[in-house]
């Protein structure tokens, strides 16, 4: 029921639960109709995949046609799913159901907006930006879905909060990669409890209660770790397809402390003020990037950018050096990255996973030069906020979460 699109849609319809509008299609013509019906941008993906393999966000019909042509050539038997892409806050819930009641140890909020695979997102517990009402709705919807699927054991549900409404992205009737993380920080032994439930015990008899469990006093932030330096030809840009190869956990009394520790553990270096920030931002993201650039500029960082981004930043009072594009005569942007004067690259891609784009060459060159690359404005915005606090390793404590 969770995997079959029509059966799952029927369950959500019966329960009155939102999901992004979408359709399963078997050919190019139906795919174009479906995308035009729900409106661009759309999230397209093959059926029955793990790790978001083959998923992509397309903003134009041309991109959609290219995607569907390749998808149907590779697999003619299964449909391609086309959903309206909602640029909202992603939320994740791991729960245990005994066929009647549910226990939700904690709700996790993703730092990066929807569209980035949950395995590659920074996850925050307890959530920082969810209202009490939304948390209660998450608990109610989780119980409804778990019981409708006749779940006895674990279930993982991924939501989007968009314009104060909750939407279901997907439901996985199994343990997820976040179970060890949420078990550790809430002190709820999820594997043990789920196993006992599957063997016939009831949640109400185990002493942990039911529904939403009380939130922990400490803040825990899961930060993904990537191995792109070691893998030739792999794009570092974040998107629906999972690329991380591990994760670390930052724990603190405050969100800033936890996130700072998570960044350090994941190998994200605080930018050196003696080096420049290279920014290549697509037009649709320039206005969202400006507040981040202003903060970095006020902290004393110097910018370098290609012509359009440099022009935009200079017009907004941020002194920015212009550098030639990748395909222009040397010395160009690639030479600039290799010169050692760049400390951070902020490159917001228009299209990920395309080795023919200038953006791919920029990101790949930076990674091979051991320079931190940010492809999500949400991530660099969070790092900038941390830097503004002037936090250092001397300001953090060690917490024992094994007790």
Q: What attributes characterize this protein structure?
A:
about 400 residues, alpha/beta, five-stranded parallel β-sheet, 12 helices, globular
Fold and architecture overview:
With 403 residues, this protein is of the alpha/beta class. Helix content is 33%, strand content 24%. The chain contains 12 helices and 17 strands. The protein has helices at 5-15, 28-38, 61-74, 132-148, 179-186, 190-198, 255-265, 286-298, 307-315, 333-338, 358-368, 377-388; strands at 22-25, 42-46, 56-58, 80-84, 89-98, 102-110, 123-125, 152-162, 165-172, 211-212, 219-225, 246-252, 276-281, 303-305, 320-322, 342-348, 372-374. The strands form 3 sheets. Strands 5, 6, 7, 8, 9, 10, 11 and 12 form an 8-stranded mixed sheet that branches. It has a 5-stranded parallel sheet with strand order 15-14-13-16-17, with helices on both faces. The chain has a 4-stranded antiparallel sheet with strand order 1-4-2-3, with helices on one face. The radius of gyration is 22 Å and the shape is globular. The protein starts with a helix and ends in a 15-residue tail after the last helix.
Short description:
The protein is an alpha/beta fold.
Report the uncertain regions.
none
Principal-axes geometry comes out as globular
Q: Count up the helices.
A: 12
Radius of gyration: 22 Å
